[in-house]
Amino acid sequence: MSAKKDMKSKPQAIGKGTGVAIVTPFKKDGSVDFKALENIAEHLIKGKVEYIVALGTTGESVTLRKDEKSAVTQHIVDVADGRIPIVLGIGGNNTADIVHALDSTELSGISAILSVCPYYNRPTQEGLYQHFKSVANASPLPVILYNVPGRTACNMTDETTLRLANDFEEIIGIKEASGNMAQIMNIIQKRPKGFMVISGDDSITLPIIAAGGDGVISVVANAFPKDFSEMTRQCLAGNFEAARKLHYKLLSITNLMFADGSPAGVKSALETMGLCQDYVKLPLVNVNKKVQIALAEEIKNYR
User: Rounded to two decimals, what is the model's pTM?
Assistant: First the structure.
């Protein structure tokens, strides 16, 4: 049975605010630590984030087997139990495989799809357009594009993003992690009504929202959901003095979490906080000892 037929009820809509690209915690043997996953999901919900993103980059989706992906997704949906929307990462560099996944994946309890730009192939802008056209036409749920050229070696330009935003009502937003403020602001200025521009960089969430953006899909908020989501809410309300205080309170920890690779950095922080162990799957490795110590010290002194 197709995913379109499996959805039993209309899911919650994704709105402005803080989404969290939740980590996938592992045990020493590499198996998924479902108890830790539950603890982190509860931590995020209690921290009042607006939604959770499962199986994103931070969730190490590319090193999970198909059965592990299904189990992780279902566990997050079960723990959330309708209290918070869930976005599911379904993306890659094989368009036909993604279309098949969209048709065959169980999507009950999922509110939207996050789909990353194809990596390694290095498609042209027309190739990106045709890829996401196929995704939009196949998806039974709203689609959020994900532009992260630092990982894909392929930047989707503002022109291509706007073309997709105008041509497909199924495409409701973009997670922009290009770091190119001129590109991001051009999308914000020219986007159709209702199209969300979401920060994909924790450290520049404040300026992106100040320019008219709609929120963030955060890594750091795995560890500090309360403060990060409050910073985002204050930004969205135009209370930038209050938002700046939280932004700078979080900035040193944010920089350290990305100093020696992600999600190794945030997993090191989560281990210090007692929420999960810091195991990652190869080819990722743990952060170096210097970063680990510095992160632990920052967390100890965090107020």
Answer: 0.95
